[in-house]
Amino acid sequence: MATTLDLVLLYLVAAVAGVVVCRSLKLPPMLGYLVVGVVIGPNALALAKDSAGVRYLAEFGVVFLMFVIGLEFNLPKLRSMRTLVFGLGMSQVVLTMLGTLAGHVLLWWIYSFTTTPWQLGWQGAVVLGGAMAMSSTAIVAKLLAERLELESEHGRRVMGVLLFQDLAVVPLLVLIPALNAEPERLVMAIGLAVLKAGALLALLLTGGQKVMRWWLTLVARRKSEELFILNLLLITLGLAWLTEHAGLSLALGAFVAGMLVAETEYKHQVETDIRPFHDVLLGLFFITIGMKLDWRPVLDQWGLVLLLTTLPVLAKAALVAALAWLFRAPPGVALRTGLYLAQAGEFGFVLLTLGADQRLIDPQWVSPVLASMVLSMLATPFIVMWADRIVMRLVGSDWLMQSVQLTSIAKKAIQTEAHVIICGYGRSGQNLARLLDKEGIPYMALDLDPDRVRQAAAAGHSVVFGDAAKLRSLIAAGLARASAVVVSYHDTPSALRILALVREHAPHVPVLVRTIDDSDLETLRAAGATEVVPEAIEGSLMLASHTLALVGVPMRRVIRLARDARDARYSLLRGYFHGADDDTVDELQQPRLQTLNLPAAAASLGRRLGELALEAMGVQVVSVRLASGQVVAADDGHVLGAGDTLVLAGRPETLALAEQKLLRG
Question: Is the pTM of this model over 0.70?
Answer without folding.
Answer: no
